C-alpha cells in the first residue's frame, strides 16, 4: 500500500519573492529594449557614455583573444552578437572565455569580426576616456599588423587555418575591414587617433602594402583591368578557390567594397584612379537587364519555395555574384561544377544562395562614383 508522502516546500519570504520579481521584470524590459550588435555600432555619440555601452564594451574585452583578435561575432558564440541582451555572471564569463581560448583558431576577420569590435571599443573610449577600452583597441591593431601577409593581404583566419581561410580574403569584406581601420589609425581620424607615433607608422606601412596588394590582385583580362575574386593566393596573388562552390571568378559583390575603399583614399595615385575607373567600366559591362529573379511558392518542394528567372523589360539592372574570368558569363556552381543557368542547379542550391539578382554595384554607379568624379575633377581644376 502506497503511503501518502507530503513534501514540505520551503516558504519564500516576501523580500525574496520581491527580489525575484524585480529581476524578472528587469530581464524582460532589457530584452524588449535590446538593440542588435549591428545597431550598437551605429549609435549617436552620447550613447557610448551609457552604462549599456560600457557593459557591452566590457563583454568585448572579456572575450578578446590573447592574440588580440576575436572569433566570429555571431549569436551562438560571441557575446557581442547578442549585444545588449547578453547577461552573464563573472563566473560564466570566465568559463566562456576559457572555452574560446581553447579554440585552435580563435581569431578571424570573417563576419566582420575583430575590426568591428575594435571600432566599438574606440567609440566607447572616446566617450568615457577609460584606458581599458583603448588598450583593447590597440591590442587589436597589433593583431591586424601581425596577421598581414608579406604580400600585403589579410587571410580570413589568423593564426592561419588550413584551406581556403588562409587565402587573401576579400569575401564578406574581410580584407577591406582590416585595411580601413588601419588607415583610420594611420590618418588619426576621429575616434581612432589612439596610437603612438611608432605604431602609427607601422599602420601607415601596412596600409601602403595593402593598397599595393589590392592593385596587384585586380584581375586583368586581355590587357584590361576588371574586378577582384573573393579569394586570392597570398603569394602569386592569382584568383583562388574558396569553398567548394566558390570557384575562382570575378566577384559582382565583394568588388564593390574594394572600389569604395579605393575611392575613400585622399589624393589617389594614377594607378588607383585607373583601378577605380576600370572596375566601374566592368560593372557597367556585366550588368544584366531585361530579367528579374522571381521567388514563388511551391508546396511540393522542401521549404515550399522555388526560384526562377523571368523576362521583365522594366526590371532594374541586376548583377551575378560570380562571373567567369575571360567571358563574363554568370556562373552557378554546385560541388565545384560550373553551370550557366540557375535552373540547372539542384533545388536546395538554387534557393540557398543569391547567385544572381543582387544590386550590389547599383548605388556605387549611380551615387558614389559620380560624386567621387566630381570631387576629383574639382580638385584638378583648383
Summarize the structure.
The protein has 382 residues and is mainly α. Helices cover 44% and strands 10% of the residues.
Q: What is the average of the pLDDT values?
A: 89
CATH architecture of the domain at 211-382: Alpha/alpha barrel
Beta-strand share of residues: 5-15%
How widely separated are the two ends?
Answer: 103 Å
Sketch the topology as an H/E string, one letter per element.
HHHHHHHEHHEEEEHHEEEEEEHEH
What is the count of β-strands? 12
The residue ranges in which pLDDT falls below 50 over 5 or more consecutive positions are 1-7, 22-33
Strand order of the largest sheet: 1-4
- Alpha-beta content class: mainly alpha
CATH class of the domain at 211-382: Mainly Alpha
Task: Please characterize this protein's 3D structure.
With 382 residues, this protein is mostly helical. The chain has a domain at 211-382: Glycosyltransferase, CATH 1.50.10. Helices cover 44% and strands 10% of the residues. The protein has helices at residues 14-33, 37-40, 51-62, 79-82, 90-101, 115-128, 131-147, 174-186, 197-217, 254-263, 270-286, 347-351, 362-381, and strands at residues 168-169, 220-221, 224-225, 231-232, 250-251, 291-297, 305-311, 319-320, 322-323, 332-334, 337-339, 356-358. The strands form 6 sheets. It has a two-stranded antiparallel sheet with strand order 1-4. The protein has a two-stranded antiparallel sheet with strand order 2-3. Strands 5-9 form a two-stranded antiparallel ribbon. Strand 10 (332-334) and strand 11 (337-339) form a beta hairpin. The model is unreliable at 1-7 and 22-33 (pLDDT under 50).
